[in-house]
Amino acid sequence: MHQIFNFIWKNYAFFLFIILQFICFTLIIQHNNYHRAAFINKTNDFFGQLTEQVDGVYNYFSLASVNRSLAKENALLREKQQDAFFIADRNFIIVEDTIYQQKYKYRTAKVINNSIHKRRNYITLNKGSQHGIKKDMGVISADGIIGIITGVSQNYATVMSVLNANTKISAKIKRLNHMGSLVWDGVDYRKASLNDIPLHVTLEKGDSIVTSGFSAIFPENIFIGTINNYSFKEADNFFTIEVDLGVDFNNLSYVYVIENLMRHEQQYLENQTLKE
Question: What CATH number is associated with residue 203?
């Protein structure tokens, strides 16, 4: 210990210089928006590259679960192919029109960092602005919704997870079409709560919870989870509903980022209506 103090005393000028440099750097970042934004972007890129390398090792040991997820997804896609349908009647007329337009575009991304035990959990993806990723895009997997894009750099993006106290998802009970808000209570990463469902609704355990489609972020009927339990207090007008989430947030690999191609048109119209 004495030798350490001697070393610090002999080199105190150098250590003082480092401390002053750190203080100056901190003041510059805190009081200059441009420098702060540049620092955050560079930091995101650095830690993104670091976690991507670390994730490569982990990914080797999770190939089995990834393959199961891809197999499940492939099965769903095959069900939608033309050869999966049976033509019972060939007496039909084909009419060419412009009714159907693409509304949602999907991009794949890989999870390279993830947290589940904090009050506000975030996920990092290996895709950024140069890949077409933007803030406020929805993120899903083959098993359900993941969260919403909140930060984007050139090569990476951060996602505010469903497991975040600030996340609120517009959801509905698929069987009944009654809508509510899905929130996380900060306790179990496998469960969430569905609020604002009135007491006159007839609930059943196992009912599917899906997205309502009432936001410009997620399409309608994206799976969220199933009702595990529900209760109510006599003084309340709404159920307390516990939902088993379909996504295992402790085992995420590949996800889909959703772009709503008509989002700006919808938001513009809604904003104009609110001003009237």
Answer: 2.40.10.350
